[in-house]
Amino acid sequence: MSMKTKIKSFFGASRQYAVAGASNNPSKFGFKILSWYVTHDLTVIPINPKEKEILGQPVISSVTEILQAIKDGKDLDIYKLSKVDGLSVSFLTPPHITTSTLKLIASVPGYEELIKGLWFQPGSYDQEVIDTAKEIGLYEKAVYEDECILVRGDEGLLSANL
Predict the structure, then answer these.
(1) In what order do the strands lie in the sheet with 44-47?
(2) Domain ranges of the chain
(3) CATH assignment, 3-159
(4) What global pTM score does this model have?
């Protein structure tokens, strides 16, 4: 599957988005990428174990909470997860955190169906991350190769007719 195809399938009309490594610091990519989603009116959940709110969005501490709510058809805080078709995650975490997050994702029953896309931003992945994505069967849904959503996101939205 080409990166272009993976980028297109990352987006969807009833998709929930999340940013792992979202940050309150405007100079960090975790803030800039979250901003990109908010600016494009996409429902996005910042994931950060230490923050309570970023850019007016309530923060959820772990991706597993989000996946479990989607799986159970339940809303979480202000997020209407009962209405979504799945989750696409942008990663801005250091590679070892990205790897452990992937392992957490794989601990949720049915995660293969729930996860619609993984976007490993530059700096968030290494070979171990790619290998882990392969091991848990999500490699076909992973965008990487130094692709940045700030550069390619608009094209992805267009190709998904959003």
Answers:
(1) 44-47, 15-20, 86-91, 115-120, 142-143
(2) 3-159
(3) 3.40.50.720
(4) 0.95
